[in-house]
């Protein structure tokens, strides 16, 4: 099994049949959870969402306005005309996923994959760079303690991090699923993905 890279001490392998797999820990990703389907949103202007504003690179300033504390936060959320997070009805701050439903505009919170209700995984850029078939929208599977869940590859993580899945994926595995304090700290979670093979209901989207 050729190794295509190592991140955080985790070897990323690709089999002859194209399957990419690695064993890592599990952080919980809340991106794309924007209140679709009546589910809880990741970010809210009063910081009462499932994820902390700080983890999305945001903060509440002295005027009680949510602003981007870091430039990278502007790639996480939908922005208003002032280049700061846009507040949607219910105080929701809509976050984005790498995968976007193309029948909806980029400024629509429902255009993104809902971490609260859709099992998905996050991949590091290294995988996208080193495998030939399209990764975004492809079929994936996560296994933990003899339980597995089918997923879609829906989000792209930072280059130095590996092992991340959506709230819904964690729920399906019986794993603590809070983005604030859930997940698994040990390298005991198996991630598999099949680049070039679209997950049911999704399309392959070239990077």
Briefly characterize the structure:
The chain has 207 residues and is mainly beta.
Q: Averaging pLDDT over every residue, what do you get?
A: 96
Radius of gyration: 17 Å
Largest sheet: spatial strand order: 3-12-9-11-10-13
Shape assignment: globular
Low-pLDDT ranges: none
- Strand tally is 13
The percent range for helix content is under 10%
**DSSP strand content:** 25-35%
N-C termini distance: 25 Å
Query: Architecture of the largest domain, CATH level 2?
Result: Beta Barrel
What is the CATH homologous superfamily assignment of the largest domain? RlpA-like domain
CATH-assigned fold name of the largest domain: Barwin-like endoglucanases
Give an overview of the whole structure.
It is a single chain. This protein has 207 residues and is mainly beta. The chain has two domains: 3-31 and 115-198, Barwin-like endoglucanases (Beta Barrel); 40-105, no CATH class. The chain is built from two helices and 13 strands; from the N terminus they run E-E-E-E-E-E-E-E-E-H-E-E-E-H-E. The protein has helices at residues 125-130, 167-173; strands at residues 3-7, 10-14, 20-29, 43-44, 58-60, 66-68, 87-88, 92-93, 120-123, 138-144, 147-156, 164-166, 184-198. The strands form three sheets. Strands 3-12-9-11-10-13 form a six-stranded mixed barrel. Strand 10 and strand 11 form a beta hairpin. The protein is globular and about 55 Å long. The model has no long low-confidence stretch (mean pLDDT 96).
